[in-house]
Write the structure tokens for this entry.
Amino acid sequence: MPNYAMVIDLHRCTGCGACVIGCKIENNTPEGIFWAHFVHETVGHFPDVRYTYVPTLCNHCVNAPCVEVCPVNPKAMYKADNGLTLHSTERCIGCRLCEKACPYGVISYNEEEPHRFWRDDTALISGGTATPKEVAERVGGTVLPYYNRDREATYKGIRPKNVVEKCTMCDHRIARGVDTYCNTVCPSKARFFGDLDDSDSEVSKLLRSHSSFRLKEETGTEPRVYYIRKYNPS
């Protein structure tokens, strides 16, 4: 069984956000919820200004606090044999303990029915514009302008309200031998996904060639997302 991990080369990363957009497209995430995101910081005073950008996602920690606190039996948040931290919407009771326990803030909660905009029957200008619901009906009666059915292979294509959701490292794609979508759409090829236990995998080679760091390593979570090099090499 593989031991999956991701390596992100910050020197290659351009901060374009393609990973964020690609993730939303692949996983049908609703407005305001991001399985892939970023943190950025601008420091200094002109002209001595420095900008940093770090892509973020679920770290699929070895010692995952979200799994530890899940009160459901069997657990709704659980560790798969391949090292991924996954979640069952069927078993989730919406207690949000996992969201509170995650030190990285990468677990989201659906408080309302997702993608509600396309069910909205309120016109922006009463009597002057069509409602979002009318627009959806005119283009085929769907509630979404776009929907990726591939997501349904291992997980609900659209998660219902009152449950949490997060990055699954595209488990539906890797199950059929395809790379994660955030890696696929990265124009600068800054992201790598593979088996840590395979010495010939790209992630293993990169971690042997470069010093690396992980976010909030002091918490003891043992993240499986590694960063190499720097966004600003100077």
Observations:
- Residues 99 and 105 are 7 Å apart (CA to CA).
- Strands lie at 4-9, 36-45, 48-57, 77-79, 85-87, 108-109, 164-165, 191-195, 212-213, 225-228.
- The first strand starts at residue 4 and ends at 9.
- The chain is about 20% helix and 20% strand.
